[in-house]
What does this fold into?
Amino acid sequence: MGYKPAYACLLTRIPYGNELKIEDFEKIENAEKYMMSIGFRAVRVRCHGDLARIEVSKNDRSKLFDEKLLDTIAEKIKECGFKYVTLDLQGYRVGSFNETIIKN
It folds into this structure.
């Protein structure tokens, strides 16, 4: 039997209230595997429909100041199924989607 990804863990990459689609989980998983393969260990790819929001650790952000690398990352993430690729300037942080919840 083949490998089954831990989709429950990938739920944290999709905004609250969004429809959950296997295709999105596959896009996220493939994008994160690519980012890890090029040396980003603490990385999250958050899915906003056709847009991928990449979070890397604060220690790794400086690696992204390379235009060739950014072009390659954008191309590879688009090959995963995203139309748009963005970098979250705050970097990787646990629970970044929680920031959108209004607390009363």
